[in-house]
Amino acid sequence: MSRRTGLIDSAVDGLRERIIAGRWPVGTRIPPEPALAELLGVGRNTVREAVQSLVHAGLLARRQGSGTYVLSTSELAVTMGRQIADARQRDVVEVRRSLEVEAARLAARRRTAADVTALRQLRDQRTAAYALGDLDAMVASDLALHLAIARAAHNPVLLSLYESLLDAITENIRFNFERPVDDDPGHDDLVESIVDGDDVAAMTEVETYLSRLIDVG
Fold this sequence. Notes:
The chain is mainly alpha-helical. The chain has helices at 3-20, 33-40, 44-57, 75-83, 89-110, 113-132, 135-152, 156-164, 166-178, 188-195, 199-215; strands at residues 60-63, 67-70. It is 72% helix and 4% strand. β1 (60-63) and β2 (67-70) form a beta hairpin. α7 packs across α9. The longest helix has 22 residues, at 89-110.
């Protein structure tokens, strides 16, 4: 490996680590080339090539006259997003069921006190959003709750897979709220079954509501 190639790879790793760690959240502009060069201890040409590499990977996006912005924190999410961009909603629900049933089971067994607090708060936010009929808030709060359950499972592989599908899951949640099967049942029983450590009940709750969506899809 040439020294220049090694510097570029090192710069790519440095930028990627900062993106993944959330130092530059999705949607924000990263520092300009001079600042990045100083931050990484490399030349501007090296920074330029490293940034271009992450643009190709889908983590960054250049905007003419504006700068370079964080597009995603996961290359897996970018790849998966491209693969399932035209997926049917029924297919997405089937994948959600496979992941969310297991996430609920593990969350019921592994949840911490912090997880319990977060789940109840997010459950209450979801309920409030639904009561107001605020579609954007309903989608955001529902996604946040399901993501919190995936985190409470404390399985990094499952969480990574779930996060890689967030765009598709978000669209599916919106689709389901816009075309409700029936009055939204809320997720009180799901959250409390996880809090109580009842993995069978938690699995059943997820299986029941997602299977209902599949049946009418």
